[in-house]
Amino acid sequence: MSRFQLTNKKRENAKIEKHTPLKHAESSPAPGVRGQKTHGMNWTPDINGYKTYLQLERSLSGNTVEAYQRDIKKFVEYLQLQGSEKTPQEIKRDDLSGYLTYLSGLGLSARSQARMLSGVKTFYKYLLNEDLIDDDPTALLDMPRTEKKMPEVLTYDEVQRLLAAIDLSTDHGTRNRAMLETLYACGLRVTELINLKISNLYTDIEFIKVIGKNDKERIVPIGKEAIKHINFYKDSVRNQMKIPAESENILFLNRRGKKLSRVMVFNIVKDAAAAAGIEKNVSPHTFRHSFATHLIEGGANLRAIQDMLGHESILTTEMYTHLDSDFLRETIMTFHPRNQKEKPLPRFIREEEE
Fold first, then answer.
1. What is the pLDDT of residue 212?
2. Against a cut of 0.90, is the pTM above it?
3. Looking at the annotation, which residues are catalytic?
4. Which of 73, 125, 331, 340 is the most exposed place for a label (fewest CB within 10 A)?
5. Annotated domain spans of the chain
């Protein structure tokens, strides 16, 4: 998430908190409903069980678990503002529809509304699976319609400019160049980058092992240019640092020898883009999108890209085909039966068939 997105997130939360001063499910009732009893509105046991389910059964990250819990607590705060004492088992579809109307009235975008409701929907799926409710009130709920935004992508020339703008005369510049080369070479998520371990580098055979979402491992090729900058960083910078025991196996470190934060990587990318004169909204994830798009443009197999990105579904990977109209046009003109005229196959398809 970029600094711009973080600012937007804070604004959205501020809108909600301005109207929902209650912070916890068991807090005092909101102004206007003081004096009403809330002892019947005890969501804590179910929320705690939900948290355990997300952590142990879904193996979600700490940040994701916290986000889902926040979604539930915001919904409970809304109920308290309405003077409601309903338990999770007493919630009906009308309560949820009212919540959506409330969120819309705060000026939140459809995308933000849908995201906040996703945690509530997951919560009720959990309750249903655990036989804690008989019916799921979210099942027939109409979700806000959101326009699917295509991700920002850098051209290859812009990637080159951005990387070249990093000052290699400084230690942090040497590290930053190695980091961004790795992001682009391997299509990593920012969390995967900051957790990348030295023991998972197999540079002699040009592969790295990545620990992705839900602790799933995948093997990703890494190019010679990225390997060159990683080795330069390790030899000239990292090996000269005093590194605490808990960080000994982490590749990219801050000046204190500890693991980098996600925010720090966002700032590094933003600064590099600004130095290169790139006006697009660039984030670490932009490198991941660019990695996939450039592979599509080069004719790479979609299933291979799915494996490298660590996508659960091929449908997630397919969005990148929308970013390369030239590739699609060539494919359609070659293979659609209305266009067959003894044309030679595109180079990348000939190579696959050979």
1. 84
2. no
3. 189, 213, 285, 288, 311, 320
4. 340
5. 3-129, 156-315, 324-353
